[in-house]
Amino acid sequence: MSNNEHIYAVARIRAKEVNLLDSSVIEQLISSNSVESMNRILVDKGWGDGSEKLDNILSVESDKIWSLMREMFEDMSIFDTLRVEKDFHNLKAAIKSEYTKVNDSSIYLKNGSISVDEIIDAVKNKNFANLPEQIANYALEAYEIMFKTGDGQLCDMILDKGCLEYIIELSKESKNLLLTEYAQMKVVIADIKIAIRGAKTGKDRKFFDMALVSCDKIDINVLADMAVQGVENIYSYLETTDFKEAVDAIKTDFAVFECWCDNQIISAIRKEKYTPMTISPIIAYILARENEIKTVRILTVAKRNDLKQEEVKKRMRDMYV
């Protein structure tokens, strides 16, 4: 990408940033008395394509992010750190669909780094040679586990671990500090959740060795040792890490903990407004948009389940603007 193209792309993103949701709009959405009221507020902010269904609006907004990127970048591989999670989700869906012989196109996610059709074809033909090598290896292992044992949980664990390891690898290859921070946060969130859920269900050390993914933010060997000993030992270990402030959130609810972690990422990406000569402002915009879509999705579920406002606010993400 030439310097002029880069400057043009960042300028376009700057123009788009004025349309991002801010905290005042989120407050309006929280205070609205129905999903339909939320829908009207979002449509007034330019969301959607005329559809009256909020679920459709969220899908349209996600598509808008990646349509914009494709307009500006011929080589989309620079965004693979952010996109491969969808590929691994689609692999899970395709393998289980092939195993059960139940087809449902709605379970697949768009805008991954690999087309949905390519993933489905690879699984149907048990031929993963055309997929990136790192994905193909995990896909084959998960496929064989599923068809030999019928163990969907183990299939998921293999692909979840493969996804996180690949995200870390891609972030390192990018040499971009923001992508690296994003990847590290994705992994540490997953590791902590695995450790706590495993501790609560009495998993052994072998399970943790299979499931946890190495990262820079915590020592997974210590985390595994503590998990075998019990949840309180996990909390004690986290108190010695950068996640000591998150312990109360973890004790409250994983959803509150995930909110805390997302807010750390938002805090990190705000700094990228001032680094226009790197790809970081564009990465920051993607993450900001995905953050607001996630926030609206959480609000939608809360409205449909009549969750109290106090509980809703605990789960609300900080906004980029």
Automatic annotation (TrEMBL):
Pfam families noted in UniProt: vATP-synt_AC39 (PF01992)
GO terms assigned for molecular function: proton-transporting ATPase activity, rotational mechanism
Domain of life: Bacteria
InterPro entries on file: ATPase_csu/dsu_sf, ATPase_V0-cplx_csu/dsu, V-ATPase_V0D/AC39_subunit, V-type_ATPase_csu/dsu, V-type_ATPase_csu/dsu_dom_3
Keywords carried by this UniProt record: Ion transport, Transport
Family the entry assigns: Belongs to the V-ATPase V0D/AC39 subunit family.
Annotated protein name in UniProt: ATP synthase, subunit C
Organism: Peptoanaerobacter stomatis
Lineage: Bacteria, Bacillati, Bacillota, Clostridia, Peptostreptococcales
